[in-house]
Specification:
single chain; 292 residues; alpha+beta; Jelly Rolls; 2 domains; 9-stranded antiparallel sheet; 9-stranded mixed sheet; 6 helices; 18 strands; 42% helix; globular
């Protein structure tokens, strides 16, 4: 009897240890989540007050004061500007698809959790991407990173970094991005970075055991942990080296590392973009002074 009891206790201890290890090393991926940023946002014509999980067929509408972000498989962020309407058409992980029925979205594809490509339609146009960033309305697409295959009225364009394809007066043409568009895009990029940082925090909060292991190893509290990560975002530290020093190797940690590297890359691009904007302003002032 005593031996049987002891074996039962050992089995229970091993099961608890296995479950704890599994919890510590695994990470579930949410298919589609809507994050309310501010103002009025509706899902299927019903107002939402908090984060909402989305399903195929759901329609999201931002009203005149509304801002929201959809994140697909923790890899694609779609920031909805006011007066925008989006329908979730397909939620296959390899190739999710959305339909934009009005307004403007800012889309970022970061291959964090296995998404291979992503498509979004707007009116008579369709954008298909594999790792890029772009802004989309029914009449215009602006690509700021990578390449987008953009089809409109049976005509297909490859839209590269800093290129715009726009429909004006019944004609579709490609041109270079303007300085005003760069300034607007910069604000959208800053918004995306905030969403990626929030996504990283949610990944950490999903796994309390992982968070405890890291904070204990570093002898810091939760807020110090998040501040440390924000410092890493700005410093450009080698994330892979930091991961190698971690006492825990896990799927969740790998996700956090990928998100952090994407934030670092975006911050670097923003810095370069700001330098370009300032340089353009300086040249404009110089030319103005010379004409006086």
């Amino acid at each position: 009897m005593a031996k049987k009891l002891l074996l039962g206790i050992l089995a229970a201890v091993l099961l608890i240890a296995f479950l704890a290890y599994t919890s510590l090393t695994s990470s579930t991926t949410v298919e589609a989540q809507l994050y309310l940023e501010e103002g009025s946002v509706l899902v299927n014509n019903q107002p939402i007050q908090e984060t909402t999980q989305l399903r195929e067929g759901d329609t999201i509408t931002t009203e005149a004061d509304g801002l929201a972000t959809i994140i697909l498989y923790e890899s694609v962020t779609i920031s909805l500007n006011p007066n925008t309407k989006i329908t979730v058409e397909e939620l296959t992980q390899q190739h999710p698809k959305l339909a934009q029925e009005g307004g403007e979205t800012f889309n970022t594809f970061a291959n964090i959790a296995g998404v291979e490509s992503y498509s979004i339609s707007a009116g008579n146009s369709l954008a298909t991407v594999r790792g890029t960033t772009f802004s989309l309305t029914e009449e215009k697409i602006i690509t700021t990173e990578g390449e987008v295959e953009y089809t409109r009225d049976r005509e297909t364009f490859t839209v590269r970094k800093d290129e715009v394809v726009e429909r004006i007066a019944q004609k579709t043409a490609k041109r270079q991005i303007t300085q005003l568009e760069k300034i607007i895009i910069k604000k959208q990029e800053e918004r995306t970075i905030k969403q990626l940082q929030a996504l990283r925090e949610r990944e950490i909060e999903k796994n309390s055991l992982l968070k405890k292991a890291v904070t204990s190893q570093l002898d810091i509290n939760d807020e110090e942990l998040y501040q440390h990560l924000r410092d890493v975002d700005n410093s450009g530290q080698d994330v892979d080296t930091l991961v190698e020093k971690s006492p825990v190797k896990s799927e969740s940690l790998e996700k956090i590392a990928k998100i952090t590297k994407e934030i670092q890359r975006k911050k670097m691009a923003l810095s370069q973009q700001q330098e370009g904007i300032e340089s353009h302003k300086t040249k404009g002032l110089t030319r103005r002074d010379q004409t006086r």
